[in-house]
Write a structure and sequence with these properties.
This protein has about 180 residues and is an all-alpha fold. It is built from nine helices and no strands. Keywords: Membrane, Transmembrane, Transmembrane helix.
Length: about 180
């Protein structure tokens, strides 16, 4: 039995030296699986022209403030500065935070921002878009069905962000390059 544990400890020690792999793979998976999702979602919120981020589309308000937008008859001019700031900030976040994670610049801060973003996105989906009443969309943990939009999918997204938040961006990142240069 001692030999078995010694073998296990030896293998575990080798795996401990691969600690850099976890944040690197987390950033790769984010880029491969989720970055396009956030980029495309951000594009749906842009208004016309080069500075369209500052003149959000009607869809931006409908996605982020569905109840408030409906309450003003889908007329965004009836919404206040607060709504505009949140929509513009959210739209910018969908472009900037994923880019920072992918290149590994300020990755921990970007991961924390994405945790906040996905939390707000999930709450908006649950309560603003009434998915709270749809058990299939909400999903349930430990139910053998891995396709619930909120609990299942976004739980895995959060795990990627937590890895980056806790471990950093890894060796293949601008964070590491800049750290060495200082």
């Amino acid at each position: 039995m001692k030999t078995l544990f010694a073998l296990y400890d030896g293998l575990s020690g080798r795996l401990d030296r691969l600690d850099w792999l976890l944040p690197t793979v987390a950033r790769f998976l984010f880029a491969a699986v989720l970055a396009g999702y956030f980029w495309k979602s951000g594009l749906t919120k842009l208004g016309d022209g080069f500075l369209g981020v500052f003149t959000p589309s009607m869809g931006a308000y409908a996605q982020i403030f569905p109840k408030a937008f409906e309450a003003v008859g889908y007329d965004s001019s009836q919404l206040g500065v607060f709504h505009w700031v949140v929509v513009v900030s959210g739209t910018l976040a969908e472009f900037i935070l994923p880019a920072l994670i992918i290149i590994g610049l300020l990755a921990r801060i970007a991961a924390l921002g994405m945790i906040g973003f996905v939390t707000v996105q999930s709450l908006t989906d649950l309560y603003g878009h009434h998915l709270i009443n749809d058990p299939k969309s909400v999903g349930a943990w430990f139910d053998r069905f891995p396709d619930g939009l909120i609990l299942d999918q976004r739980g895995l997204w959060m795990f990627l962000f937590l890895v980056i938040l806790i471990k950093g961006a890894g060796p293949l990142s601008l964070d590491r390059i800049l750290k060495r240069g200082l």
